[in-house]
From TrEMBL:
InterPro entries: AraC_XylS_family_regulators, DUF6597, Homeodomain-like_sf, HTH_AraC, HTH_AraC-typ_CS. It comes from the Bacteria. Residues 155-256 form the HTH araC/xylS-type domain. It holds the Pfam family DUF6597. This is AraC-like DNA-binding protein. Keywords: DNA-binding, Transcription, Transcription regulation. It comes from Microbacterium natoriense. Gene3D superfamilies: Homeodomain-like.
């Protein structure tokens, strides 16, 4: 199921926001599409804070197409005026068709010259009722054609992320390698080639997202209990991870989320 807010640190602050599934063959190369739309009164702004999935995003805005790399820290964007974006959270199989070295765009963005994608998505977003679905359909057709049929290596890369981030995710790098019947070294090479992060970093990000989501859902939860539930050694370990990525302690995040 598409979770509408996982990875969003303060969902209550979102403008109109939708997550839609990929259509057709694009389901093998896109996890989901995300579409924010905003109309903010003059002189005001809306800060959106995200602890992103360990993955790349291909994003279309009214005047540009951008490839955003995986992130190692929480990020934010200040929205002003009127606008929209249509982003695709990419599965690893899509990455090789768009960039040779995903490590080069970790915590970075790169403008892409993709006029066909820009025109088709922009036209759909301006087409009235049903515009989001038409934009996703156009985006899905484009990226499925761009990536083409998946080979064994691409499918193995997708399986890597399923094992590390799926509903029944592995709790360690060694367990993930065992499930995929590969060596830990091969697992590390796959992750760097198709995501740009290490498998261990991907596991830590999943745990942090889950812990943040649980804090929002149950602000009264004991932090030591929360740490144990999501695989942290102790409360202090959870706090260090929160501070390293979000810049705040879990207790402070919980207070902010309540407000």
């Amino acid at each position: 199921m598409v979770n509408p807010t996982r990875g969003v640190l303060y969902p209550a602050r979102l403008p109109e926001f939708h997550r839609l599934p990929a259509t057709g063959a694009a389901g093998e190369v896109v996890v989901w599409f995300w579409i924010p739309e905003w109309d903010i009164e003059p002189g005001r702004s809306s800060r959106q804070e995200i602890v992103g999935y360990p993955a790349l995003n291909l994003v279309v805005e009214p005047d540009a197409v951008t490839l955003s790399g995986a992130t190692t820290r929480a990020t934010h964007r200040d929205l002003r005026g009127t606008g929209w974006a249509v982003g695709a959270l990419l599965r690893p199989a899509a990455v090789a068709a768009l960039i040779d070295d995903p490590v080069a765009v970790v915590d970075e963005e790169r403008m892409l010259d993709e006029p066909e994608l820009l025109t088709s998505v922009t036209s759909a977003m301006r087409s009235g009722e049903g515009h989001r679905e038409r934009a996703v359909a156009a985006f899905s057709r484009w990226i499925a054609e761009r990536v083409g049929p998946l080979d064994a290596a691409a499918r193995q890369a997708n399986a890597l992320v399923d094992v590390l981030l799926g509903d029944d995710a592995a709790s360690s790098v060694e367990e993930a390698a065992l499930r995929l019947a590969v060596s830990v070294r091969t697992l590390q090479r796959l992750a760097h080639r198709h995501v740009g992060l290490s498998p261990a970093a991907m596991i830590r990000r999943r745990r942090l997202q889950d812990a943040a989501q649980q804090l929002r859902a149950d602000p009264g939860v004991d932090l030591a209990t929360l740490a144990a539930e999501f695989g942290y050694a102790d409360h202090a370990h959870l706090t260090r991870d929160f501070r390293a990525v979000l810049g705040i302690a879990p207790s402070a995040y919980r207070a902010d989320a309540r407000r």
